[in-house]
Amino acid sequence: MSPGLVSLVPAAGLDEDAWEDLLSYIEERQVIPIVGPELLQVATEQGPKLLHEWAAEKLAGRLNVARADLPERYTLNDVVCLFLAGRGRREEAYVRLRSVLRDAPFEPPKALRELAAITDFDLFISTTFDSLLESAINAERFAGAAATEVLAYAPNRVVDLPAERARLTRPLVYHLFGKLSASPTYAISDEDLLEYICALQNESLVPERLFHELEHSHLLVIGSSFSNWLARLFLRMAKRRRLSDPREVGEILADDGVSGDERLVAFLQQVSVRTRIYTGAERFVGELHERWQRRRKAVASGVFAAVGRSGVSGAESDSARYDFSPVRFVPPAREMPDHAVFISYAREDLPAVQSIKAGLEGAGITTWFDMDRLQTGDDYDRKIQRNISRCSYFIPVISTTTQRRLEGYFRREWSYALDRARNMAEGALFILPVTLDGTSPAEAHVPERFKALHFTHLPGGQVTPEFADRLAEFLRGRGP
Question: CATH number of 3-41+106-289: 3.30.420, 1.10.3470, 3.40.50, 3.40.1350?
Answer without folding.
Answer: 3.40.50
